[in-house]
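User: quick one, sequence for these tokens?
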């Protein structure tokens, strides 16, 4: 009885300390300091929080498993270490069926659990919109980006980012030359991804999601912008050649009025219509009609 009372009194300060620590966590800490939450603002897209939850929960589960495994290893090292005067091998244990079932079933449950939750979230993230508010076509090319605003029938041709030789910071680029994709806030977006040459990858770290762009096929992304506006850094996440590091772009989420003004500015510059596959460098892909081999 006295032993149980001691345990109860020991558990009270531990539980109180844990509650205080968790209550003091910022939004960034609760989301594992991932890029979309560092500044404590709302997520960039409707999928950002889902991805963060899967990532953080997985790490918590794995950390618990790690602590248990490390504890058992340390316990075995201390309790079953060779004592002074002992010789030979310690008593060997074989065919302990409960232990063998335990270390077979538990990892299987963990793997199935990770698979189930990942498949659930992937299905939600990859679910197409029947009627998106906006469709954007992105052409990746060495080493820049072209953006087609499909519904508005305008385009924005991208140029390769150039280094800023006048900056005192090494590796700086000319900010005004970075290709910028504008999206209105609180809209359902479908993005069509195509490559003009090699494999690229469309990645905005603040959204916690990226997708490869494969020559000869169209990949798609589906997400909904939230009420969070601002400019977010994007880049190619697939090594694509000599100037891969300069293949940057910005994602700018703005109010509808600012988005409309940007579309009008593209029209004023004469960028009406759509940039198509006629600028692709891979002219020998299936379906292009180009001669192949020795033809």
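Assistant:
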């Amino acid at each position: 009885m006295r032993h149980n009372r001691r345990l109860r009194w020991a558990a009270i300060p531990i539980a109180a300390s844990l509650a205080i620590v968790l209550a003091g966590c910022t939004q960034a800490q609760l989301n594992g300091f991932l890029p979309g939450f560092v500044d404590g603002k709302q997520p960039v897209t409707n999928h950002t929080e889902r991805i963060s939850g899967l990532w953080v929960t997985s790490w918590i589960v794995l950390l618990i498993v790690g602590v248990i495994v490390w504890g058992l290893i340390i316990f075995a090292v201390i309790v079953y270490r060779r004592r002074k005067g002992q010789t030979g091998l310690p008593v060997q244990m074989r065919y302990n069926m409960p232990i063998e079932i335990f270390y077979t079933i538990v990892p299987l449950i963990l793997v199935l659990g990770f698979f189930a939750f990942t498949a659930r979230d992937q299905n939600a993230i990859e679910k197409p919109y029947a009627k998106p508010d906006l469709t954007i076509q992105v052409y990746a090319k060495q080493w820049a980006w072209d953006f087609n605003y499909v519904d508005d029938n305008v385009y924005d041709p991208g140029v390769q980012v150039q280094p800023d030789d006048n900056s005192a910071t090494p590796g700086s680029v000319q900010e005004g030359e970075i290709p910028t994709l504008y999206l209105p806030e609180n809209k359902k977006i479908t993005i069509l991804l195509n490559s003009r040459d090699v494999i690229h990858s469309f990645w905005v770290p603040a959204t916690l999601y990226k997708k490869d762009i494969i020559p000869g096929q169209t990949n798609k992304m589906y997400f909904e912008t939230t009420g969070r506006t601002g400019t977010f850094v994007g880049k190619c996440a697939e090594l694509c050649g000599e100037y891969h590091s300069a293949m940057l772009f910005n994602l700018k989420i703005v109010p509808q009025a600012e988005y409309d003004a940007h579309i009008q500015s593209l029209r004023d510059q004469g960028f009406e219509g759509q940039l198509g596959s006629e600028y692709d460098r891979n002219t020998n892909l299936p379906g292009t009609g180009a001669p192949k081999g020795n033809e």
